[in-house]
Amino acid sequence: MAFHREHWVGLRINNVLERANAAIKRRTRAVRIFPSRESLIRLVGAVLVDMNETWTRHRFMSADDMKTTLDPGEKPCVKITAETRQRADQITMTALESVA
Question: What span, in angstroms and rounded, lies between the C-alpha atoms of 51 and 72?
Fold first, then answer.
């Protein structure tokens, strides 16, 4: 919620998750019967890797959009508690460590 209101819609919707689930459903329905659990996992993994490559190649929020985040001195539209901010920072650091 530290972004301005015009960015909230893009951040709160689950289109990415819904699109991933639809792609997995479409691909698994085409195959119908899997010879083993591992073959299902390989297919789902391939779909997710393909989607990840798409997301890493494209920039869905530009640098200009990122500049519209609140300055540290600016008051946010929504009150964020220190505990919520600390938890968000922990989640962010965990995600960054897993990528590195």
Answer: 34
φ and ψ of 73, to 5 deg: -85, -10
Tens of pLDDT, residues 9-31: 666 666 778 888 899 999 988 88
d(C-alpha 16, C-alpha 24), whole Å: 12
Residues 6+ apart with CB under 8 A from 44: 24, 27, 28
Q: Does pTM top 0.70 for this prediction? A: no
Q: What are the structure tokens assigned to 97, written together?
A: 């460590």
Q: Which secondary structure element, helix H or strand E, spans residue 50, and what is its range?
A: helix 37-57
**Total residues found in the chain within this entry:** 100
Read off the pLDDT of residues 87-96 as tens digits, 9 standing for 90 and up: 888 887 777 7
